[in-house]
Amino acid sequence: MKTLYAVFGDPVEHSLSPVMHNAAFAALGMDCEYHKFRVTKDDLKDAILGAKAMGFGGLNLTIPLKEKALRLVEPDPLAEAVGAVNTIEFRGNGLVGHNTDGIGAVNALKSAGIVIPHSIVLILGAGGAARAVAYQLASNGARITIANRTPERAAKLAANVSSVGRAVGTGLENLHRLVEQSHIIINTTSVGMHPDTDQTLVTGDMLQTAQVIFDLVYSPLQTRLLKEANKAGAITVDGIKMLVLQGVESFRIWTGIDPPVDIMERAVRDVLGKQ
Ligand code: NAP
Fold this sequence. Notes:
The protein is α/β, with parallel strands linked by helices.
């Protein structure tokens, strides 16, 4: 009998997770299928227990369910620290919560040949994605500055991340100087995302050739930030890499199998290219 997997979210229509996981199952000849379900916060507990009762192989969670899930499963130490669960593993009788977003981000940088220990990283934003990215990078030995429109959120996140590595928080007022001092600049804000695609916090004139620009936004695929960074000769990493590599990590947690990364990435890029 087929093993089912799913992502729960609200809204969830635009999730690309089914595309990439089904591409991997097909390539590996596994009798599995991945679906998306709209689940509200109020129904999350019932939905998770229902999936477990029906023998699902595993779950992903997206907006706005990641934080609430912390109280419904046993989070691993990373998910607990980040304060959000995006992957649920049905282990024996237990429900184990993981967070693979930060691992996806770090592996996206590593796959572009970027060395993380001792690097000076500027993270723009202090929301959910920033939390996962900051914890993982700090644990990997990066020295982090978190710059956010609301400086208090940046300061709070930096204080939390300081339990695993070096991090300071600030506002956006000294962005020129912060960009100049950084090896790696990561946009974790929604600035530049569809429909406001002409927006960017960092412009090409602020960048140097040896710098790495990583934009988590993947709609559009080539954001204004990435276009300007390319023109400035910087090394660029787009949001699809992270999206795919967090999915790869979830797949490994559920199945113990290394999925075909290239096939998953191509499936996602094909769909986005047609939009
Ligand atoms: P979130 O929790 O809502 O955080 C949004 C962040 O953006 C906050 O720091 C917010 O600052 C900042 N922001 C929003 N509008 C801004 C503006 N006009 N100027 C300056 N800062 C602004 O969202 P999230 O879940 O972290 O997601 C953020 C982005 O990352 C989205 O585009 C999402 O699609 C993308 N993402 C990509 C991946 C991937 O796999 N590639 C994974 C997760 C998320 P304040 O604190 O001041 O409000």
